Amino acid sequence: MTDARTVFDRHLPDQLPTPQPATAYAPSNIALSKYWGKRDKALNLPLNSSLSISLRDWGSTTRISPSSTDEVWFQDRLLPADDPFADKVLRFANRFRRDQMMPLKIETSNTIPTAAGLASSASGFAALTMALVQAFQLDLPDDTVSMFARLGSGSATRSLWHGFARWERGHANDGTDSFARPLEVRWPAFRIAIIPVDTGPKSHSSRDGMNHTVATSPLFGAWPAQAESDCTAIQNAVQDQNFQTLGQLAEANALAMHATMLAARPALSYLKPESWQVLETLWTARHEGLAAFATMDAGANVKLILEASSAADVKAIFPQSRLIAPFDPL
């Protein structure tokens, strides 16, 4: 059985070069076609492919430099060695270093507004992966870098690029064919609106919720095949820049994912009454002509997808929303 150490050993030199200072930025991303369920938990291998859009300047920057001892800094604050975030970062760095003594100073900062209630693990592990690759002067193909990022956080595999990216589920047991690639699509009018509902910690982590749903939901059996079909249909809509089809598919895909959770035993609901109020308001507005659609991850917050022509109307209906233009220059 393949483990993460074997994957890294296969792609890295026996002896790493002396690390050099390196900096990398990665945007966070929102899945338009959801990833929910793993075929291998240790390797973060998904049961279905997924497709996402990046969040431009909402993301993470990681700086790495040689040091006399390991240090992890977050938002300009040195973290104690027993801090869970610091431990997670160093354990991931150790996958590169393996048994080699190469102390590092790792500094991470996020530009994701706290009030937006978005997780930063995808952009954080993507930035960390790219910074480590640069620091150790590794000449690796993007597929391999994306695969490495997946071993830190599943969704990180899609956060190496700006724009749309598709993460392939793959079929190999060792995960060598499960990575993301960017779509060669520029859609300047595409917009995302983040509507915060609950920015506090979740009662169930995404990982726990996913495992519970897979293990107990009678609706989950139909999810992987439907989600795979959705992903391909959503990719086609993106490539055709067919907003109506894309919106309908993305919203249905998100609701289907949440349906599998609601059918779990006991039921699991990340959506709050306020989330449903946002959806009801959206559906009413759409009936009256608004061209916008919703997507929701394992959390209470609602994200809308729309085009620039609808931005003013969305802002008027949801004044608390934060608009992002993924294809605007940084």
UniProtKB/TrEMBL annotation:
Pfam families the UniProt entry points to: MDD_C, MVD-like_N
UniProt keywords, alphabetically: ATP-binding, Lipid biosynthesis, Lipid metabolism, Lyase, Nucleotide-binding
Sequence ranges of Basic and acidic residues compositional bias: 1-13
EC assignment: 4.1.1.33
InterPro entries, alphabetized: GHMP_kinase_C_sf, Mev_decarb, Mev_diP_decarb, MVD-like_N, Mvd1_C, Ribosomal_Su5_D2-typ_SF, Ribsml_uS5_D2-typ_fold_subgr
Signal peptide: none
Domain of life per record: Bacteria
GO biological process: isopentenyl diphosphate biosynthetic process, mevalonate pathway
Entry's Gene Ontology molecular function annotations: ATP binding; diphosphomevalonate decarboxylase activity
GO cellular component, one term: cytosol
Domain Diphosphomevalonate decarboxylase-like N-terminal residues, every copy: 26-180
All copies of domain Mvd1 C-terminal, residue ranges: 194-317
Region (Disordered): 1-23
Family: Belongs to the diphosphomevalonate decarboxylase family.
NCBIfam families: mevDPdecarb (TIGR01240)
Protein name: diphosphomevalonate decarboxylase
Species of the source: Actibacterium atlanticum
